[in-house]
Every structure is written in structure tokens, then in C-alpha cells.
Amino acid sequence: MAQLLDGKEVARSMTQRIQDKVRALRERDVCPTLAIVRVGDDPSDRSYEKGALKRAERVGVRVRRHIYDEDISQAELLEEIEGLNQDETVHGVLIFRPLPSQIDDETVRTALLPEKDVDGITEGSLAGIFTGSHLGFAPCTARACMEILDHYHIDLTGKRTVVLGRSLVIGKPVAMMVMEKNATVTICHSRTDADEIMEICKQSDVLIAAMGRAAMVDGRYMKAGQIVLDVGINVTEEGKLCGDVKFEEAGETDFITPVPGGVGAVTTAVLMLQVVEAAAVQSQNA
User: Fold this and answer.
1) Coil/strand/helix, residue 273
2) Alpha helices in 93-160 (DSSP H)
3) Whether 154 and 258 share a structural domain
4) Domain that holds residue 103
5) Strands 234-235 and 241-242, sheet pairing
6) Which pTM was predicted?
7) Which residues contact 129 (CB under 8 A, 6 or more apart)?
8) pLDDT over threshold 90, residue 135
9) Cβ contacts of residue 21 below 8 Å, gap of 6+?
């Protein structure tokens, strides 16, 4: 039976670390503050926002919500973002995406300062990951994977690691992050031959599933001794939450993250950690 990589346990451990950092900042009269920018009323955005607010209250991070109507113009939104860039009391900004069709996503991402980009969406933040310079911050989900591996003392050195998915939210950045830990990385995606994906995955020591396809990864992809991180968040026809991995067929693997309670449980903790880290850097440079 595979051992669970319990995201809730990792989040609890991170919460203590974050609280200690917040306490130290408040002793210097710095109150770490996150601005949440939400356009419209998407249920998944509201759900994530609710979780972020709870986590922020727990660790002592202040949150300011900036909620706009679905029909806001691009110029108006850019003006709001520039105001947050200039606001020295705001240390991190979370912009919910995708944005409405009248707003160009790349223009908005470019407008946000990398030092306040605590969700890793700007080119500056992503460049930091790909060059190893650590400029800006990693996408929260990608860093959540690394926090889980670190918490359970899983050494990636020399391990054959397969990443399923090539998005800038998780696939590409997490591939760079595990490579920095000296893993040997292969990226598979929607255009990789289906039979080849199975064989490549089965040969891996670590499998990170981030395709966004419910229960795509079944027993044919997995083997004994493997470490599986399931990043997928999907809803079945019955309305149940499930990952990209068919959990009941992962019995021979060594370690696996559950869904729910795995990577997703760590993501909001990472968001708060990055807000606090941003506040520490900005207060030093003030």
C-alpha cells in the first residue's frame, strides 16, 4: 500500500514557519499584505479566495480584496494594477485568471511588478525559474510540489522524473524546479503518443501528473517503488473531486498525494509564504 504524502500535514508545518516569519516582520512594523484581484464571480475563483482568506487569517497576513465587474475594460484594470504596484503597503498581488475576453492576459501579466507577483505569472518570475536566478516567485502549485517533496525528505538527485503537462502554471516550471534538485526530467504532453506516455511514465522514479484529465493515469502508468504527485483537480459527472491519477490503482507505488488533501492543500500555504517573503525583501529595500 502506497504511503500518503499528506498535503494537510505539510501545510500545517508550513503554517508554523510562516507565523514565525510574520511575527518577526511585525516586530519591525511590517504587516505582510496580499491584494486579491478578481474580475467577475467565477465559482472556482471564489472557492480559492475563500481558502486563501482562511489561511491568511491563520498566519497573520492581511488581505485586501479588489473585486471588479465582468465588463471592466482593460484600461481600467491596468490602472488598478498600477495602483497596487505603487502601493507600498501591498507586498503581493494575486490576479485570478483566466480574465474576460476583452482583456489581454499577456498585457495584464506584463503590467504587474515581478517583486509583487506572488503567484508566478509574470515573465520576470518565470525567467527566474528557468535561469535559476530566483528572481520573483514560482507559481504556487509548482512550489507546493517541491514543499511536499522537501517535507518528506525525498531526494531527487539522479531520479528519473516525468512531468505530465507543459503549462506555465505547473508543467514547465515544476520541470525546471525538479531539475534544479538534480533530477533527470522528461516532459510529456497532449501531443505525446499515448502508448509512449505509458511506457515513459512506467520507467520513471517520480511521476508528476498535471494534465487536467480526470483519472487519466491508471495502473499502466505506474510501478512499484514510484513516487506520484497528483496535481490534477477535476470534478466527475457525479460531482466528486478527483485527480489525474486513478488512486485505487496506485497500490504498488511507494508514495502518492491524495486528491483532495494533497498538492492543493499546500498551495494556499505557499501563497502566504511568498507574500511574507515578498514583504521581507521589500521592507529591506525600502
Assistant:
1) helix
2) 105-111, 123-131, 140-151
3) yes
4) 29-114
5) antiparallel
6) 0.94
7) 120, 138, 142, 173, 176, 177
8) no
9) 273, 276, 277, 280
